[in-house]
Design goal:
This protein is an alpha/beta fold and about 300 residues long. The protein has a domain of about 200 residues: Rossmann fold (3-Layer(aba) Sandwich). About 40% of the residues lie in helices and about 15% in strands. The longest helix has 22 residues. About 45% of the residues are buried.
């Protein structure tokens, strides 16, 4: 990667100012790699799970000693929402202990941690955009373990950013948009849940936000919400995917109880982004505008 537009990273003694990305082979990790490459941001080290296990304390210590990071971005997580209900111990290890392990190493190496969390920390029973100060009451094992991870990071490390997001999609990895495009091309009709409401998040936009925090050297530590702007249901999200891609499939709205899952999902997952917009002076794209960009790349 080039060095133009190099971020103004904090100069700390003899630090190399590396940015370490854990979980780099996942959707968000790949999007960060895309944006960093396009913007010439360096030095960024992308660490896929097979090379950087956040549960391996000794391995983490070696990586931190090797790279001496100024910033660490944790995209690694146990995200199989339904499987987590039967695999709670493993989900807890990855989502809480893994996050805590990274925070401990950040303390030792005077690094800032950017930890990615989720809208699933909320119960989703309040029909208004939720702020960072609203009480987190997760209703699934996945949501609980992600909240536990947030609390562990905040307890161990002052210099942290926790970013809650949801309904993530992009050109990379498996996600709702790519699934709808695939199924829409194979079937005549699809039943889509219409009574769960939230905001889609284009992972490229989120990656851009994360790298902006790093490039500005912000010390406005704390928890922030980030998704695209607007509100929609899964049904209307799917309809938008079909409309924009000109996919000829009949979408049928159904209730949540018509499509039972192991884990309960929040019915209302709209997050208030005022804090992020005011703190960092950013404009967040409308969800459908970002969806158009993503589908144009996929096609």
């Amino acid at each position: 990667m080039g060095t133009c537009c190099r971020p103004a990273l904090r100069q700390k003694n003899t630090k190399m100012n590396n940015i370490l990305i854990f979980g780099a082979s996942g959707q968000l990790g790949q999007c960060i790699q895309n944006v960093a490459s396009l913007k010439g941001i360096s030095p960024v080290v992308f660490l896929p799970e097979e090379e950087a296990d956040i549960l391996n304390v000794d391995g983490l210590a070696r990586l931190f000693d090797q790279y001496q990071p100024a910033y660490v971005v944790n995209c690694a997580a146990y995200t199989a929402v339904d499987r987590a209900e039967d695999d709670a111990a493993v989900a807890e290890k990855v989502n809480r202990m893994g996050a805590e392990n990274l925070a401990v190493e950040c303390v030792k190496h005077d690094a800032v941690l950017i930890h990615i969390s989720t809208d699933f920390v909320f119960k989703g029973d309040v029909a208004r955009p939720l702020t960072e100060d609203d009480e987190a009451k997760p209703i699934s094992v996945y949501g609980k373990t992600k909240l536990d991870g947030e609390l562990a990071v905040a307890k161990v490390l002052r210099e942290h950013f926790i970013i809650r997001t949801g309904w993530l999609y992009s050109e990379y990895a498996n996600n709702f948009v790519k699934t709808m495009l695939k199924l829409g091309g194979e079937r005549d009709e699809l039943k889509i849940i219409a009574d769960q409401v939230g905001t889609p998040t284009y992972a490229i936009d989120l990656a851009d936000f994360i790298l902006m925090i790093i490039s500005t050297g912000s010390k406005a530590y704390g928890t922030y919400h980030y998704s695209n702007e607007g509100v929609t249901s899964w049904f209307d999200f799917a309809r938008a995917v079909f409309d924009i891609s000109d996919t000829k499939v009949k979408a049928i709205p159904i209730r949540t109880d018509e499509y039972p899952t192991k884990a309960v999902r929040p019915a209302y997952s709209v997050m208030d982004k005022s804090k992020a917009k005011q703190t960092f002076n950013i404009e967040i794209p409308y969800w459908r505008d970002s969806l158009i960009k993503c589908i144009s790349k996929l096609q």
